[in-house]
Amino acid sequence: MGKPKAKRRGLSESASAKGAMPKKTLNPFEIHVNRQKFNVIGRKLKSERGLPGISRSRAMAKRKATLLQEYKVKDKSNKFFDRRIGEKDREMTNEDKVIARFTAERMKSFKKKQIFNLAEDEVLTHRGQTLSEIEKFEDFHSDDDEDVNDTGKLGASFVEDAHFGGGPEDRDKKSRKDLIAQLIAESKKRKAEKQNIREQTLDLTEKLDTEWHDLLPIVASSKKKPTDPVEVEKPDSYDVMMRELKFEARVKASDPLKTEQEIQEEERKKRAELEAEREKRMFGGEENEQLYKHRSADDLDDGFAIDVEPEVTLTYDLEGNIMLRELESTEMEEESSRSANQLDKVNENQEDSNDGGSNNDDEEEENSGSEDDNDDDDEETDDSLSDLRPSSGNESSAEDVKDNQMSQKDQKEAKQEREEQTERIKIEDSVETMNNKLAGERLLIVANLLTEKDKSVFLQSVKIKFPNFSSVPETYEALHKILKCYNAEEQGVIIDHIMKKNHISLNEVNRSRLETLFQFLLQHIDHSASQDAGQGLKVLNYLAPSLYDLTHMSPECVSRSVLEIIKEKQQAFQNRQQKYPTFNSLIFFKVVSLLFPTSDFQHPVVSPSVVFMCQMLFQCRVKSRRDISAGLFLVTMVLEFTVLSKRFSPAAINFLCGVLHLAIPKRLVQVASVLPIPPFRRVGEYSDLLLLEDKVEDVDAPFQMKVADLSEETIDTSFKIRALASAVAMLGEFVSNLSYLQASPNMFYRASVLLSKVPIHHYPTKVQTEIEKLSLAFQKLKEKTLQFLVVERKRPKALRLYEPKIETVCDGRRIRPMGPEKMERERLLHKIKREKKAALREIRRDNAFLSKLKFKETIQSDKERFQKVKEIFGSAASQLGEIRALERKKNRLKK
Amino acid sequence: MSVRMSSKQLRENAQLVLKDKKYAHHLQNVLSLIQDYDSNDVQPCILTLEMIFGELLRRREVGKVCTSPEKSASFDTNYGFWLRQRYERTFTRLLIVLKKHSTASQLQALSTMMKLLALEGRYPLEDTPKGEFYFPVQRLQFIILALLSSEQNMTDPLIRFQEFTSYYDVLYFVWKMLPNIALSQKKPNEIFIKNFLLLIDKIPLPTEEELKANSEMILCSPTGILDGPGFVLNMHYLRKWLNRTWGCVMHWDHTPTTHHQLLYVLLEKVLPYLDHPLLLTDFLMDSLDSGGAVGVLALQGIFTLIQKHNLEYPNLFVKLYSMFEPEIFHTKYKARLFYLSDMFLSSTHLPENLVAAFAKRLARLTLVAPPQDILVILMFIGNLVLRHPGLKRLINHPTGGEVNGDPYIMDERDPLNSCAMESSLWEIQSLQNHILPSIATAARFINSPLPSVEWDLTKILEQTPDDIFVRELKKKAKEIALTFDKPTSMEVPGGERLTHYWNF
C-alpha cells in the first residue's frame, strides 16, 4: 500500500512543498556582493550578488561531464555507446527496464505531428480487423451454434477399429494407409455438411430478421388491441407540449441554401470583378489620366480633390444691382472622362436605331456590346418604378418633394406623367428584351438542335461504328477518321462527349490527353477550313464551347498551341508575301477572339495575331474577289478585336479606303491626298475592281459578305455592292469607335474624300442611305474641336523628412537616435561583442581545467613510476640479499 | 557525228588526244558536239575542251597563226597550225554559248574562256616583245562584247565575271575598252544599258587601301619567266576611262528602271571617282523631283555632294518635305530616306517652323504607316523635338486651350507656310491607342520629360514586320488571361462583329 500512496503524492504536493520550503539558507560568507556606486531604484541587475563557490563547483561539474569526457576519448576513433534504456542503471530491476523501454517505444509513436490530435488513438486490431468493427456485434453468431457434439475427437467407430482392433481375421483387409485416407475423407465430409447447415441457418435467420420488420406493425397492433382503451389516459397538455419541444425535429445548422437572387447577385459580382480586371488589362498599366488643376506636395494621390469654389468678386452694375457672372466651368469638360464619352456614344447609337434606321449592328451593339450600359438601363427602370410608389425616399426625390408640396391636382397630373414615363420605359424595355430574346433564341436553336435524347441515340450509333470513340484518340488521323463521317453539328456532340468522358476530375492524367485533343481540334479546324471555308466555320461554330472549356482547363498549353499555329501560318505567309493566305489561316483569328480577351493592352496570343493581321493588310496585293474578301474578313476581325478597347489600326482603315478607291471612276481622283496607299494601285488593271458602271436595281437582300466570296475569283455586281456596303458600314463603326481620339478627323480625312467620289447613284437606296449617314458622320468629325496637348504637370517633390527625435523611456542613458534598422544592427553587434567575451573566458577556463588535469596526470604517472622503481629496487635488493645469504651458506658449508 | 557521248567517253577522248597526236581527230568530234547538243548538255563538252586546251597550251603545242600552211613545214608545225585553228573555233563556239545558251552553260563557258585566257597570257601564242606585259586583250574584248548583249539579260554571267575583276589586269583592260564600247553605242536599248550598268557595278575601281593590301592579284602573271615584265595598275588612266565612259552613259536615253539603276551605280561605285561631280547636280535634282525610290537615291547623291563637294542648294528642304508621302513606306529605300533626312535635319540652325512642319508631316504619316515605320517616325520626331527645344510647344502647349480643327495645312508645299507651330502633335497622342502595344508604349514618350540623349535610329531602321512579330512572340506573360463568357457558338459574347458583316 505504501508505494502507490507515495506515488499519489506526486506533483502537486511536491510543488506546494517547494513553495512552502524556505529558500536554502546560504552561508553569508559564500555570498559575494558586487557593490554599486550609485543605486538606481527600480533597476534590477543580474550581477548584484554572486555565489562564487557554488558557481565554480557547478562549472567544474559541467566540465567534468563534457570536456573531461571528450578529453578521455580524444584520439580514439572508435566509440561504443550503449543506448539501451536503463542498461547502466544498476538500481533498476529487470522489469522496470522492460516497462521503461515499452513506454519509450510508445512515446516514439507519438510523433510531434500527433501531439494535438487527441481523437486519433492507436487503432487496436484483432486478426486484422479493428476492434471497433468487431465490437459492432452486427453479425454476431454465438459459438453456441456450434455442434456441441463436435469436440474434435475421433468417432467412436474409428477408435474402436483403429485403436482396439482385435484380431485381423474378421476384418476387411484394409491397410493402415487406406484407413487414414478414409478417416480424412469422412471428417472432411462431416465438416462440409456442418458448414452447409450453418449457412442455411444463417440465411434463414437473416430472412427472418428482415421479414420480422415487416411483421412488426402487425405484432404491435395485435399487442395493442387487447389493451383497454379506457386505460389510456389523456395526456396532460403540459406533457404534450414538453415532449413536443423535447422531440422536436432538430436539424444541424448548415449553410442556408442560396436563393436564386443571391446566386444571381454572386454571379453578377463575379462578372463585374472579371470585367474590372479586363478593363484594367485594357489600359495596360497606364495610369488614369486625370488632369488635376493643382497638385500639392502633400497630395496623397487618392483622387480626392477639393472643389475650390471659383472666387467671385462681388460687383455691381451701373444701377447698383449685383452682377452674378456664371463662370464657365471648363473643369467640367476636362473631367468628362473617357467612359462618359463612351456612354454618350452608346446613347447616340441607341437614338439612331430608335429613329428608324434599321441598323442591325447598332442594335446588336446595344444589346450585347457592353453590359454596363444594360445595367445602367436597368437601374434607370428601377428608379422610375420606385418613383411610382407613393412614399418614395429616393434619390431622385427633388422632384418628389416638390410634388408633395403641390396640390392634389398637381399630384394627379404628376402621377399621369410618371405613368406615361414608365409606360415608355416599359415599351423600350420590351423592345430590348425582344431583341435579347431573339438573339438568345438564335443561340438556343444553334446549341440545342439536337435534344438530349437525340444525342444519346446518336452517340449510341457512333459507338456501334467506332467502339472506343469516347477515349481521346492517340493521333490526329484517328480523330479525323471518326469526325469525317459526321457533319459539323454531330462532330460537336462527339467532341463534347469525349470531353465529358475524359474530364480532369475523373483522372489527372486526362489533362495532358485533353491538351492533345485541343491540338487535334485546331488541326481539324485547319483541315476543314482548307477544304471549304463554310465547312470550317461550321465546325468552329459547333466546337466553340468545347474549345472554350478546354482553354479554361489548361490555359498555358492552349495558348502555346494556338500561338504555335499562328507562328506556323505567319512563316508560311513570309515565304509568299503579298498574297493573302487561304482561309484556313484566317479562321484562327476568330479562334483567338473566341478564347482570349482581345481588349487587353498586351496579350501573349492576341498581340502577335494582331501584328500578323496588320502585316497582311499592309502587304498583300488586292487582285481578285478572294483578296478583297480576305481583306474585309481581316478588317472585320480587327474591328472585333477593338470593339471594347477602341483602339486604332491604320492597316484596317487603309484597307477600307482602298476598297472605296476600287469603287471610284479613276478620272475623278486627282488630288494627291486621296491617292490610295499601296498595296492598292493608283491606276491600272486592278485599280477599279469594284467600279459600278450602271445603276443597279434595289435588292431586298441584306448586304452582308458571303462565305463564297472567300473562295471565288470573279467579281459580279452583287459582290461589288456588298463589298462597298460592308466597307461603308465598317468605316461607320470605326468612326464611332475612334471619334474620341483627337486625331480622328485626320485619320478619316482620306476616307471622307474618297467616299465623296463614290458614284452614289449607282447603288441601291439602302446603300445610298448608309453612305450618306457615313458622310454625315465624317462631317461631324471635321467639326471636332481639338485641345492643345499639355503635359500633365508633375507632382512637386516633397522635402525630405527626417526621423523625429522621440525618446520613449528616459532612463538616464542616452540612446543615439537612429533608424530602426541601424538600431537592430547595433544591438546585434553589441551582443556579438559580449558573446565573444564570454566565449573567450570560457575557453580560458577550459584550458585551465585541462592543464590542471594534465598536471594531475603527470603527477600520477610519476608517482606510479617511483613506486615501480622502488619495487624493482626492493626486489633487486632482496634478490641480492638472497644470493649473498646463499653464498654465505656455501662458505659456511665449505668451512 | 551527232552521237551523244557520256562524260566518261568525253574524258577518254580527251586523254587520247593528249596522249598521242594521231588521235587528234577526236578533238574535232568533241568540238562538233558543242554545236549539235542542246544547251543543257554542253557543259561536259566545254569542260573537256577546257581540259584539252589547258594542257595543250601548257605544253605550248598550239602554234602561231600563219596565213597559209607551208607544205615544207614539219609535221609539228602543221599540227600546231591545225590546233590553232581548232582553238580559235573553240573560242567562237564558246562565245556563242555565252550569248545564247542557258544560264548554267553560260557560266561554264565564261569561266572556261577566262581560264584559257589566263593560260594564254602565261604561255603566249604569239611572240611577245620582251619586257612588255602580255595580255590577250582581243579575247577579253570578245568576252566583254558578248556579256554586253543587247538581247539577253546577263545578270548571272556578270555576277560570275565579278570574280575575275579582282585581278587588276582584267580590271584594267576592261576599263580600257569600255569608253570605246560606250562611244560606239548611240542609241542602246534597255537591255544593253542594264547589262552595261551592271558591268560597271561589278568592276569597281580599287580603293587606296586595297591597292596597298594586295598588289599581287594578276591573272596573266608570267610565272614561267621569272624575270618577266610586271603589270602596273595605272589609277590615273582608270579614272580617265571611267569619266569618259560615264559621260557617254549619262547621255543615253534612260527608262525609269535604268534611271534607277544608273543612280544606284552612280552613288555606290562611280561618284567618288568623278572629276567634276558638281555637274551632276541638275541631273540629281531632276531625279529628286520624280520622287519614290529614284528620289531617295538622288537625295543620297545630293547629300554626298553637299557633304563632300560644298554644294549649296536652297530649295532642298522643300523637296525633302515633298518626299514624305504615304507611298514612301512601300518603297525599297525608305530606311535610306529616314537616315538621310535625319542627317539633313540634324542641324540645330534650321528654322523652328521648318522642323515643326517636318515633325507634323511625319506625325500625319503615322496615321497610315505600317507599324515598323511608325516606330522609326516616333523616334525621329522625338529627336527633332530634342534638337529644337522650341518644338516642345507641339507636345506641351504653353497656354493650353482648344482650337477648331488642326491649324496645320497638310497640302501646303512650302514647309514654312504650313502653320505647323500653331498645331499640336495630336497624332502621337492618338497613337497611344494604337492596336499594337509596342507602338502605344512608344508613343507615350510625349507624356513624360524627354531624355537628354537622342534616340538611335539606325538600330530600328531595317526592321521588318516579321521582326516585330517575332519580338511580340518573345514577350512572356506571367498569366494568360482568358475570356470569361462561354460561347455557345462562333459568336463572341459581347463583342461579336464577324457575323454582323458576314452571312455564313
From TrEMBL, chain A:
Keywords: Nucleus, Ribosome biogenesis, rRNA processing. Involved in nucleolar processing of pre-18S ribosomal RNA. Has a role in the nuclear export of 40S pre-ribosomal subunit to the cytoplasm. The keyword Zinc-finger does not apply. It comes from Gryllus longicercus. Residues 1-28, 252-295, 326-424 are annotated as: Disordered. GO terms for biological process: maturation of SSU-rRNA. The keyword Nucleus applies. GO terms for cellular component: Noc4p-Nop14p complex; small-subunit processome. Residues 399-424 have a biased composition (Basic and acidic residues). Belongs to the NOP14 family. This is Nucleolar protein 14. Residues 349-385 have a biased composition (Acidic residues). It is found in: Nucleus, Nucleolus. Pfam families: Nop14.
From TrEMBL, chain B:
It comes from the Eukaryota. It holds the Pfam family CBF. Residues 296-443 form the CCAAT-binding factor domain. One of its GO terms (biological process) is ribosome biogenesis. InterPro entries: CCAAT-binding_factor (IPR005612), Noc4 (IPR027193). GO terms for cellular component: Noc4p-Nop14p complex; small-subunit processome. PANTHER family: NUCLEOLAR COMPLEX PROTEIN 4 (PTHR12455), NUCLEOLAR COMPLEX PROTEIN 4 HOMOLOG (PTHR12455:SF0). Belongs to the CBF/MAK21 family. This is CCAAT-binding factor domain-containing protein.
